[in-house]
């Protein structure tokens, strides 16, 4: 080591054979009243590890090195972040026309999701004329399709795409079908009934296998959990729930400490009570009186509470309205509702009025639905008491599984 004139720092570089580590020492001067102390950093470019030492120069110009344990450095943190980014799974997301808005929200929720296009056309005879853009570009990619089986008329064209995508040499294929439409037709009550839930499950179970294996199927709050057994071995159903979205919304209410959860029947209680067990629970029951089915209070006390009725879906809304009346008659001060799937055929959503306060028997404070049924979303958007809780973030997370 040669003598140097005083300067803000000293740069020492030792050159060794190429098969050994190259080390650079940067030594800034730190003035002290007595013995001068110099701090330097040794970096090994082989493994990016770092260690820090104190160098103390005594009066005889000898340097004593005092070793300290290695500590975390910004380089280590940066490396971890780079590793996390590398492990993020890139997904090419295709979608049907109805689901365009939700697909864009999903892409906005995750930088790992890239939207891809499909040309939806028809021939003169009405049958679909479809084209998958840049089919060569998705080879070896993780691919997903966002579907909406809102009516029988749109199912065939979407199935044509669903059956084609796995055969384009993609590394894996995921079908996102937020609402499983035939879920309420899952059982037979007499000979001759057709369980169309089983029929649709069999159709989806025959989606071609991609290079990565069977198709993954994402469904939110399927009507009956036993329907998972309707699917064959060539598809992997993943059942998600919209209840976490409801929980997050309830936490933001000004009266969040006065919420009670009501289930319109035993089926809804069995379906959701474990996810909502930390709330006071109210259960209603349907009883038959002559030719009518009447909703009555089975257990729980709604008096003085903001009661939220929870179910998986709503069609005509008759059961929810009857449940609302019962809860109001038993002293509920506010009544709201949540369903994952707002079907509302023939605009039956118009039956639900808004209660701005003090009139729970005739209106609801809030009615929350998700965007699993895009046609309904367009009808009720910005109309009280309806609020939309988007499935975009849960779907984006499911595509990373």
UniProtKB/TrEMBL annotation:
This is ribose-phosphate diphosphokinase. It is an enzyme of class 2 (transferase). One of its GO terms (biological process) is purine nucleotide biosynthetic process. Its EC number is 2.7.6.1. Residues 92-205 form the Ribose-phosphate pyrophosphokinase N-terminal domain. Gene3D superfamilies: 3.40.50.2020. It comes from the Eukaryota. PANTHER family: RIBOSE-PHOSPHATE DIPHOSPHOKINASE FAMILY MEMBER (PTHR10210), RIBOSE-PHOSPHATE PYROPHOSPHOKINASE 3, CHLOROPLASTIC (PTHR10210:SF45). The keyword Chloroplast does not apply. One of its GO terms (cellular component) is ribose phosphate diphosphokinase complex. The keyword Magnesium applies. It comes from Olea europaea subsp. europaea. Keywords: ATP-binding, Kinase, Magnesium, Metal-binding, Nucleotide biosynthesis, Nucleotide-binding, Transferase. Belongs to the ribose-phosphate pyrophosphokinase family.
